[in-house]
């Protein structure tokens, strides 16, 4: 199994969803809900999209932990990858967040689930840097190459280079920081909207890195071990084509398979040659999430990958008709524990 592609993920099922007013100023991807659409309707649509993502990933053989969020003051809690990352060897990182109304998205129950179900050696918490105005918003701010140990980072006030270097020192990554802007000169707010690193393929909008020398350094670093680079256009980035993530699933007969999870909007923006390049190494799993994308993030932002070894568990009992009925009626649960029996 590739170190790059986790076989388990954490999702947050936010019962109250709206594009966050506190992040609108610097997130060029964010948009308001349709005029006249109530918060209740917006939330209901987003919930259906969250469940669709969980269902699609489970169907691909990925282990999915879903946590319910009933707190109406956390509009961006659907994006847990900004406050949490996990790493081989049993390490977890917790990050400082730019928007003050996002800081209480950090949840002890998520960390407890990781400690109880997986082997966790240490949790490194950088959130104490928030009072100093220093932020690094997890795997939104960094796109991590877990194989070559590189942290690709578009510099912004959400990705401070000092804490980046501290993270890289603590977790043994090489920092690869660069400036990235759109055609209007607006900085890219999160690296993971313009880049995705998989085991054998990377998607990245190299043209959004204005420094030609740095652009070629990034290209070279991505390809040094034979990885294929699929270059995205800025327009494709606007369609969230860069906001994808490679995961390890299983076929119905138990064989491992690699998938590239992205939104249906992102998939539609790709050219046939780009799709073919991705599908040389992984299957594309695309889910339509137009409501969630109003908040300025897409499928990758929704997923916190679990790069940890599982603790041994007892063999599950055979499914009864009653359990099968529960599985069908409730594909996701509130406490992060799977109802569905693992493939």
TrEMBL record:
Gene3D superfamilies xref list: L-arginine/glycine Amidinotransferase, Chain A
Pfam family of the protein (one): DDAH_eukar
The keyword Nucleotide-binding is annotated on this UniProt entry: no
Domain of life: Bacteria
MF annotations from Gene Ontology: transferase activity
InterPro entries linked to this entry: Amdntrnsf_FN0238
Keyword annotations: Transferase
Protein name as it appears in the record: Amidinotransferase
């Amino acid at each position: 199994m590739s170190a790059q592609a986790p076989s388990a993920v954490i999702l947050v099922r936010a019962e109250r969803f709206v594009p966050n007013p506190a992040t609108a100023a610097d997130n060029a991807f964010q948009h308001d809900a349709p005029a006249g659409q109530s918060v209740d309707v917006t939330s209901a649509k987003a919930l259906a999209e969250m469940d669709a993502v969980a269902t699609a990933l489970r169907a691909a053989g990925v282990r999915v932990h879903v946590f319910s969020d009933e707190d109406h003051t956390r509009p961006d809690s659907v994006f847990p990858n900004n406050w949490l990352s996990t790493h081989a060897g049993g390490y977890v990182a917790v990050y400082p967040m730019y928007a003050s109304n996002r800081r209480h998205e950090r949840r002890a129950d998520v960390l407890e689930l990781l400690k109880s179900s997986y082997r966790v050696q240490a949790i490194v918490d950088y959130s104490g840097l928030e009072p100093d105005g220093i932020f690094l918003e997890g795997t939104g701010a960094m796109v991590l190459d877990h194989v070559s140990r590189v942290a690709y980072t578009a510099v912004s006030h959400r990705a401070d280079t000092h804490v980046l270097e501290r993270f890289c020192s603590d977790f043994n990554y090489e920092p690869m920081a660069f400036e990235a802007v759109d055609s209007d000169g607006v900085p890219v707010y999160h690296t993971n909207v313009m880049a995705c690193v998989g085991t054998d393929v990377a998607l990245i909008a190299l043209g959004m890195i204005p420094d030609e020398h740095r652009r070629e350094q990034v290209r070279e670093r991505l390809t040094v071990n034979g990885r294929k680079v699929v270059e995205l256009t800025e327009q494709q980035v606007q369609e969230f084509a860069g906001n994808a993530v490679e995961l390890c699933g299983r076929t119905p007969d138990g064989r491992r398979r690699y998938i590239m999870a992205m939104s249906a909007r992102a998939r539609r923006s790709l050219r046939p040659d780009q799709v073919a390049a991705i599908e040389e190494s992984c299957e594309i799993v695309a889910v339509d999430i137009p409501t969630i994308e109003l908040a300025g993030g897409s499928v990758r932002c929704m997923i916190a990958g679990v790069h940890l070894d599982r603790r041994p568990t007892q063999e599950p009992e055979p499914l009864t008709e009653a359990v099968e009925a529960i599985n069908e009626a409730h594909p996701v649960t509130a406490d992060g524990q799977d109802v569905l029996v693992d493939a």
